[in-house]
Every structure is written in structure tokens, then in C-alpha cells.
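Read as amino acids, C-alpha cells; as here:

___
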Amino acid sequence: QGEGTGLGLSLCRRTLEEHDGTITVESEVGHGATFRLELPVVARPAPTAEAAAPASLPPVAGKAILVVDDEVDLATTLSEALQEDGYQVGVADNGEAALDMLGKRSYDMILSDTKMPKLDGEHFYAEIERRFPRLRRRIVFVTGDILSREKREFLQRIGAPHLLKPFDLREVRQLVHRILADAGPEGTSGLH
């Protein structure tokens, strides 16, 4: 127990160094170890008027988007940005709550985290396919993880686009617009 190849710690240290961070360890025999990861806070430059303005993509009229993420700040940011663009937005903090909302109201698209409590992205997608098949090509997964082989295979198998956190809101807006604009009148998307 507690033994491994040591590659995880090496990868962690290398990644932190690439981002000007540090890792320290405090250890006491028989009591385990505490690892402290530190990353610098980098102030982002103030957005220019061009960068602050939404991309010149008009919202697809009357469309509703469901944002599913257990990170409240991220869900709020996405919701507010999409509402500013003229979309109707619902927010759920897990897959089960999202399925409940989908049963009560029609949504045109879903932005969902892959790692959530109660129902992860893969199982959430399986339920979407089974219960709301018209949305299976209108789901974008958001992940903060380095894509594991399993997660990468899942996303490739279903053909769903994905965004890696942190992402630029312009990227989200462009992807949302493309998916909704490509969707046919019967609710099937031209994306594969």
C-alpha cells in the first residue's frame, strides 16, 4: 500500500515548474506526507473593447441551453455569458438534476462537465441517448482534467466536442453558435 512508480510525483513537479509553481513535502514516519502545491497568481490584462465585446455571432433565436456543472462559479459565468448573448439558460449542478430539468422543459443544447457528483458525464450521456436522443449531437463536454485514455475514447466514440478548462468565452460562444446554427428544424444536428 502507498507504493507506486513515482511517475505521478515527477509529472506533477514538471507541470508545476512549467507554470512557475513549486511543490513541497512534509513527512513524518508512520503519519504520512503532506504535499503543498503553489502556483503564482497571474493578473490578466484588462480586456480591450474588441476582446470584451461578444463575438460577432448572433444568437440562434429562441434557443435554450442547459449548463451542467458542479462548480458554481463556472456554471454562473457560462450562464451569464450565454444570457447576455440572448439565450435562455438553465443550470443544474449534477447529471441527475439535469435529467430532471430535461424532463420538465425542452432544451436545444447542453454544456456539461464530465466529472460530476451523482452521475458522471459518460452515464449522463447514456441517459441523454436513451431518453432525449435529439440532444445526443447537441452536447458539449467541459473538462478540467488532462484527458485520460478512457475519457478521450469516450469523447471520440460519441463524437462530442469538448472544451478544456480554462477556456475563452469566445470559444464557447463560437461552439454554441455553430452547434445551434447547424441543427436542423427537427432537432438533429449536422455535427458528427
